[in-house]
């Protein structure tokens, strides 16, 4: 019995130290992103509803930096929820958080992606919304039953988002057109 005690104790201590460092890293990330902790709440009137979709919210990352997760404003954890798209913007009702609102004026683009931090899916299986949060461009990623339909509704919402729409992840090399 004593010959197993010390290895188990060492492993338990190493695990405790690892968890402590993870918590410290998460706290430091929250502190660095404190200026972004201003996710809007939905206004009473958001205009005509164009559609809604049950989604799995995957993550919000800094735009063009898909490994830099945003952890403030209820955006740090994956959650099931309802995305409502209206003329005034997008309302995110995510489990475990207060509803969040992305105003139409803050939406910069929409598109399809195949991966984001800690999530890889089939080709073009994620819908992303690029938007401005406290002056910083971010990408929010969602998994929907019908990503093409969700993308179509989001594109209908904003012609400027349609013009900026991408069908590939920013880090995915694009083929050059022949000269």
Automatic annotation (TrEMBL):
Q: Which residues form the PH domain?
A: 40-156
**Keywords, in A-Z order:** Membrane, Transmembrane, Transmembrane helix
| InterPro entries in the record | PH_bac
**Keyword match Membrane:** yes
Q: Which domain of life is it from?
A: Bacteria
Enumerate the transmembrane spans. Answer: 6-26
Pfam families per the UniProt record, alphabetical: bPH_11
| Protein name per its UniProtKB record | PH domain-containing protein
């Amino acid at each position: 019995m004593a010959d197993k005690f010390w290895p188990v104790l060492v492993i338990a201590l190493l695990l405790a130290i690892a968890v402590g460092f993870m918590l410290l890293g998460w706290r430091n990330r929250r502190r660095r992103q404190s200026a972004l902790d201003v996710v809007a709440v939905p206004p009473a009137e958001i205009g005509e509803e164009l559609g809604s979709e049950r989604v799995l919210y995957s993550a919000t990352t800094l735009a063009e930096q898909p490994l830099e997760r945003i952890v403030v404003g209820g955006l740090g954890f994956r959650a099931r929820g309802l995305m409502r798209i209206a003329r005034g913007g997008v309302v995110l009702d995510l489990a475990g958080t207060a509803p969040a609102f992305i105003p139409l004026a803050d939406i910069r683009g929409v598109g399809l992606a195949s991966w984001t931090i800690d999530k890889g899916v089939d080709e073009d299986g994620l819908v992303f919304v690029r938007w401005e949060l406290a002056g910083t461009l971010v990408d929010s990623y969602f998994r929907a039953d019908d990503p093409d339909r969700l993308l179509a509704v989001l594109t209908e919402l904003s012609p400027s988002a349609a013009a900026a729409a991408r069908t590939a992840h920013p880090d995915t090399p694009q083929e050059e057109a022949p000269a």
